[in-house]
Amino acid sequence: MSPDKYTPAKIFTVEEANARLPLVRVIVSDLMQLATELSDRRERLSRLSRKRSGGSSDVYQAEVEQVEQELEKESERLADYLRELLELGVEPKSAMAGLVDFPAMIDGKLAYLCWKYDEPEVLYWHSLEGGFAGRQSLTADSATGSDHSDGLLDA
Predict the structure, then answer these.
(1) pTM for the full predicted model
(2) Is beta strand 91-94 parallel, antiparallel or unpaired with respect to 99-106?
(3) What are the start-end ranges of the H helices in the chain?
(4) Non-local CB neighbours of 137 within 8 Å, separated by 6+ positions
(5) What does DSSP say about strands 99-106 and 152-153: parallel, antiparallel, or unpaired?
(6) CA nearest 85: which of 72, 98, 68?
(7) How much of the chain exceeds pLDDT 70, in percent?
């Protein structure tokens, strides 16, 4: 994604991101659990499909249909969780890992405050292109969001 074409729904300070974490944490917890269940169901469906292709298709037909219906419902719930996060201005990055980004300004440039489910608060940031592998620790100044007048963080 080209940084000059990207316009986030909201720009967060570190304090705003951390204030939003209690709700985000609940949604991400549900999202992670559901993503794991979906993965398990997809694997089950794959195993059933392999069994069906072995010649005993009628035996597994009812179970395949049930798993497909469950997958459809759970996929809709997953989309709802993702939509909730996006409506909060938060960008989900990995449902399985519980990873989300909060758009922010760092050193006058658009970047992401990066949070993972097992972290107590937002402690990292990365460039738009950097991703999780490019995470950097927030400095003491940026962690307090010392510059409130223009939403910039000193990293």
Answers:
(1) 0.77
(2) antiparallel
(3) 14-52, 57-87, 140-144
(4) 123, 124
(5) parallel
(6) 98
(7) 81
CA 103/CA 14 separation, integer angstroms: 10
Tell me phi and psi for residue 18, to 5 degrees.
-65, -35
Q: Spell out the domain ranges in the chain.
A: 33-87, 91-153
Rounded-to-integer distance, Cα 21 and Cα 25, Å: 6
Strand partners, 113: 102, 125
Query: In the beta sheet, which residues pair with residue 152?
Result: 105
> Residue 131: how many CB atoms within 10 A of its CB?
14
**Tokens linked to 83:** 């939509």
Which residue bears the tokens 């939509």? 83
Tell me: pLDDT of 148 over 50.
Answer: no
